[in-house]
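In the design runs reported in the main text, the only information available to the sequence generator was the tokenized backbone. The following block is the verbatim input for one such run; it is reproduced so that readers can re-run the procedure and compare outputs position by position.
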């Protein structure tokens, strides 16, 4: 039987302290998750990280280090950004328990990422824009700041509960496979290029067009074939003689 947790990446973006990486690895392993991605960490896992991992050395050793969040999300069908605050024009937001259930269900279609930000500032708006869901932990409103590893522990616990409830990933819907992160990003880039070429978008004053488009697709969850149709339509329109040269 396939384990849905094996298709979930825990992504830590721009961590400042190696000890937090180790503690996060320990939190993951206790809940049965092993796939750790590190986006541009200030310090790579070292002696302090290994000490804090306390037996989860294998998770640290297998960690994948990348330069950008875009790289960490390549090939995923769903990315959930963990945040302590609501954002303007953000993707749909849910409590972590609901987001975990959705994430586990999505493993039936492909890879899933749960994304955590820097210990001090959390995730930037640019980073959350790359995710299709935002999730919050229901903490004390008067003091809602959790340590990074504690937040990872809560999220991994909810993922484990959801995984135990679901068991094997559900079958793929007959409607079609969901588009991956890479495919949606390609479509958004295509829309931006078409908007500039048509004169609809002034690149010097883009305002909030592309963030709104990202938000639209985060809600819509387009399928692979739908993305291909839209990109084919855009290519045809951009090649037509009726467009400005």
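Verbatim output:
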């Amino acid at each position: 039987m396939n384990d849905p947790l094996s298709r979930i990446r825990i992504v830590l973006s721009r961590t400042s302290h190696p000890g937090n990486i180790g503690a996060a690895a320990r939190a993951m392993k206790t809940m049965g998750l092993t796939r750790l991605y590190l986006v541009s960490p200030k310090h790579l896992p070292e002696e302090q990280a290994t000490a804090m991992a306390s037996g989860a050395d294998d998770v640290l050793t297998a960690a994948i280090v990348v330069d950008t969040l875009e790289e960490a999300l390549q090939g995923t069908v769903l990315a959930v950004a963990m945040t302590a605050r609501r954002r303007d024009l953000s993707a749909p937001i849910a409590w972590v328990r609901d987001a975990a259930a959705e994430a586990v269900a999505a493993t039936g279609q492909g890879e899933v990422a749960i994304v955590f930000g820097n210990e001090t500032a959390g995730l930037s708006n640019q980073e959350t824009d790359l995710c299709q869901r935002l999730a919050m932990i229901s903490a004390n409103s008067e003091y809602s700041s959790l340590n990074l590893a504690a937040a990872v522990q809560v999220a991994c616990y909810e993922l484990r509960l959801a995984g135990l409830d679901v068991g094997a990933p559900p079958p793929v819907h007959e409607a079609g496979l969901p588009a991956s992160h890479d495919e949606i990003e390609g479509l958004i880039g295509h829309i931006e290029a078409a908007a500039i070429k048509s004169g609809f978008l002034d690149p010097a004053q883009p305002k909030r067009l592309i963030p709104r488009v990202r938000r639209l697709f985060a809600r819509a969850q387009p399928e692979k074939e739908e993305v291909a149709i839209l990109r084919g339509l855009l290519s045809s329109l951009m090649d037509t003689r009726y467009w400005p040269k």
